[in-house]
Amino acid sequence: MAKDEADSDLPSHDQAKEFYAKYDPKEVLGRGVSSVVRRCTEKETGKEYAVKIIDISGEKQENYIAEQTKRDTFREMNILRMCSGHPYIIGFHDSFETPTFIFLVFELCKHGELFDYLTQVVSLSEKRTRVIMKQLFDVVEFIHSKNIVHRDLKPENILLDDNLNIKVSDFGFAVVLEDGEELTELCGTPGYLAPEVLSVSMYDDVPGYGREVDIWACGVIMYTLLSGAPPFWHRKQMQMLRMIMHGTYAFGSPEWDDISQAPKDLISKLLVLDPKKRLTATEALNHPFFKRELAPEKQFFARRTFRAGIICVRFFYRLKYFYYNPPPISKEVIQTNPYSVKPLRKLLDNCAFRMYGHWVKKAENQNRAALFEHAPREEWLDLGYS
Ligand SMILES: Nc1ncnc2c1ncn2[C@@H]1O[C@H](COP(=O)(O)OP(=O)(O)OP(=O)(O)O)[C@@H](O)[C@H]1O
Fold it and tell me: Is the pLDDT score of 5 beyond 70?
């Protein structure tokens, strides 16, 4: 990209003297509705950060929306300060305000979003899911203890640091609950919305919602990490919202066949329609999924150990034999059950993901709602694959 074009959305030096005195802005990392996130370096230390530059000038949007953006940003800054120092929440380093822009300087997460990581790997192992979900519940337990509700937990808002630890970001919808306060605003991302958020926007005589919406979102995230597809999804958004309202989801085959009972049990205790019956973050952290199974005390039995050794060696040689002499794949198997053949299974899965875009690569100007679009891609239709 030409330098002029790349820098075209940067505020001028006159508009942001204080920021430019301390930081050098670099390439764009991501864009929001009214903001651009760039890598930047701190002049004094040479350390790298990410700066979110929020336009509050009113030039790109109506004045009243710019005012709202400004108010929301101050609320977000206040909440970020309340969360400072938590190991799995994005570090908030610095801020600057001018009449036209607000600059928020964050720690830099070079590995980007959990969403992009999932795009590459499609689904995660139980072990990796355990690490990520444990960190996520640590965050939720912490923010809920401070009466903060995030309201937009999803893989796009979970960044990964250099050690692939999570950093929960984007507290743009987060609020601090007053004692006994119930929320009524419809906000969040469709696939992750809890049923009570939908109810409150549809009916007059229902109670508002509270912190339990974050637990529901954790259930959706955990399901998605393990299977590579969201639990509530339909080509037509109204149908998808109806599925959420009724709590209709399944641990379908074959994605869930090899997944053990503990994570399924935990998910089923998170995706509970009645928010009062949903686990809390602390209860989720005490679920058996997060408890390592302790091996029984080991005793040494010479004969048994010797026999086990022989079996292992035999097994190894059989495995080696099959590896170098794989059984022929018959035409019948390919016709009747192609999914049972591992290389074909991989190919089919890849095609399905390409065609239906459960995981879609983020591109310039791509709408994130595409994650839930189940339509074949244009070029496939041209090829007559529809
Ligand atoms: N600290 C960071 N390190 C690396 N990349 C980041 C960081 N913060 C944000 N990004 C990238 O920038 C993108 C947009 O950031 P962010 O999620 O804060 O904006 P947004 O909330 O989507 O914006 P808006 O609320 O204005 O629509 C992120 O999705 C991510 O890819």
Answer: no
Backbone angles phi, psi at 177, to 5 degrees: -80, 135
C-beta 159 within 6 A of ligand 1: yes
Write out pLDDT tens, residues 355-366: 544 444 333 333
Q: Which residues pair with 39 in a beta bridge?
A: 50
Q: Which domains does the chain have, with CATH numbers?
A: 13-107 (3.30.200.20), 114-290 (1.10.510.10), 331-382 (no CATH)
Question: What pLDDT, on a 0 to 100 scale, did the predictor assign at position 367?
Answer: 39
**How far, CA to CA in Å, does 305 sit from each of 309, 312, 314, 318, 319?**
6, 10, 14, 20, 21
35 close to ligand 1 (CB < 6 Angstrom): yes
Contacts of 385 by beta carbon, 8 Å cutoff, 6+ apart: 355, 376
CA of 52 to the centre of ligand 1 (A): 7
**Token reading at 11:** 């505020």
Looking only at Cα atoms, what is the longest distance across the chain?
82
Q: Which residue's alpha carbon is at the smallest distance from atom 22 of ligand 1? A: 32
Model ipTM value: 0.94
Annotated binding site for ATP: 52
What's the token pair of residue 143? 């923010």
Global pTM? Answer: 0.77
Task: Please give the Cα distance from 55 to 99 (Å, whole number).
Answer: 10
Active site residues: 152
How much is the mean pLDDT over the chain? 83
Look at ligand 1, atom 31, and give the residue with the nearest C-alpha: 30
Pocket test for ligand 1, best of 9, 115, 159 (most atoms within 8 A of CB): 159
Task: List, for residues 80-135, the tens digit of each pLDDT value.
Answer: 999 999 999 999 999 999 999 999 999 999 999 999 999 888 889 999 999 999 99
pLDDT at residue 15 tops 70:
yes
